[in-house]
Amino acid sequence: MSAPTSKVLSGQEVAQHSSRESCWIIVHGKVYDVTDFLDDHPGGSRIILKYAGKDATAEYDPIHPPNAITDNLPPEKHLGSVDPESVLKVKVEVSDEEKARMERMSKRPPLSEILNLHDFEAIAKVVMPEKAWAYYSSAADDEITIRENHAAYHRVWFRPRILRDVTTVDYSTKILGHASSMPMYITATALGKLGHPDGELNLTRAAAKHGVIQMIPTLASCSFDDIVDATKPGQVQFLQLYVNKDRAITKKLVQHAEQRGIKGLFITVDAPQLGRREKDMRMKFEAEDPAEVTENQQQDRVDRSQGAARAISSFIDPGLDWKDIPWFQSITKMPLILKGVQCWEDALEAYDCGLAGVVLSNHGGRQLDFARSGLEILHEVVHELSARRGLSFPNEKFQLFVDGGVRRATDVLKAVALGATAVGVGRPFLYAFSSYGQEGVDKALQILHDEFEMNMRLIGARTIAEVVPSMVDASSLSAHIVAVPGDRLYNSNYESMQHARLREVKAKM
């Protein structure tokens, strides 16, 4: 909580504290002394020092929840309000690149011309700020796994049933006991405000309208409470959890989430260290630094060259272990799901620990390159847990989820046929709101509704319960070299990785 204060400071007074020795910043009209916090800032001291003595709100907002600064600074560092008329403004010069981007933004096609989820990605790629695109689209190392996540769906083929009355089809389902209009959910993705000023709230509002469940990310740009407050009565949300090295912080967040009505806790287990996301790293997530920052660079303990992902995630505990599971079970009654399980052995252990389910996932291809797709893992898990524990899937008591690479309702139906309760979709919704705001997410969800209705009819399934293993041929799923026609839409959106390059060389003449 912020310390009660009525003190009003002038911008001139704040401007005097613009060095490493005394560093004050303004965020949302409040003044904070961050001198002692410089070297503890997860993003390093350089970016703070750039705004020393100035208003840092514009830089702060996209990558922090509103309460981040108040939660991390002791009350005595909350110095008071600032007289807005006296604040030294950071001069914002619109670059030629930004002018060109805004011109492209004005030439977006109308939503009526957006026909599929690939289209949102194609538009987002050319209208988003470069650092935002780099963060959202980047993946690990050579980006083999991110592409495999999508390609894996191409190795599963339908075996449709005919002459069934499909006048009416119902593709609704239940996820952890809660109704969903489709067997998919909006999975957690960080830093929504990089793509749109309303950030994750775009997803919350669209999820309510379309009857799907949103998973709130730990690293949301909007505050957790703002996202929950934006729900409609009865709207269901889950929480994705990065486990903090300080377990007291984790316990507080988990129990607060439960009190706010969150219906499922998805504990991320595939990120003891963040993968190398080289597109993001090349962006370096920072503008040119002032002399004050450059001079003190050697004192900056956080490597900013690792990009946005590394800058915001240094709190994640690499020591998370199976022995921590009973502790989680002791602090909450929410269903616990492990997010990022990548082999049947760990899925079996999760079942034996009494957990509610697992997400078979490789973190959207952003962690270990050459990790297998969630779809391939699903096929393996269903087989092994059936053989070893007599389980059949989908299973209400131990639910299997998959995420990564989904672009069509047919992808989701393939996963459901293979035993998934539901499938998480992430990046396509980021691209939808980055290019068209909440209306984009509405359109994306409507596209999926329409695709589900059509494809349920075409495979001969009247309900999700009728989408069964015999409706697909997955015999080639684990064969990683298979001749399948290329997906031109996906491949045309994929932006090739770049080598290091010479800086621009000016001609002598």
**Gyration radius, in Å:** 24 Å
**Largest beta sheet, briefly?**
8 strands, parallel
Number of helices: 20
Q: Give the uncertain stretches in residue-range form.
A: 1-5, 285-302
What average pLDDT do the residues reach? 89
Write down the overall geometry.
globular
Measured as a percent range, the helix fraction is 25-40%
Strand content: 5-15%
Structure description:
This protein is α/β, with parallel strands linked by helices and 509 residues long. 36% of the residues lie in helices and 12% in strands. The chain has helices at 11-15, 46-50, 57-60, 68-72, 96-106, 117-127, 130-137, 144-151, 201-210, 224-229, 247-259, 278-283, 291-295, 307-312, 325-331, 344-352, 374-389, 409-417, 427-459, 488-493, and strands at residues 8-9, 24-27, 30-33, 78-82, 157-158, 173-175, 178-180, 184-186, 214-216, 237-241, 265-268, 336-341, 357-360, 399-403, 422-425, 472-473. The protein has an eight-stranded parallel sheet with strand order 8-15-14-13-12-11-10-9. A four-stranded mixed sheet has the order 1-4-3-2. It has a two-stranded antiparallel ribbon with strand order 5-16. The longest helix has 33 residues, at 427-459. Mean pLDDT is 89; it is low at 1-5 and 285-302.
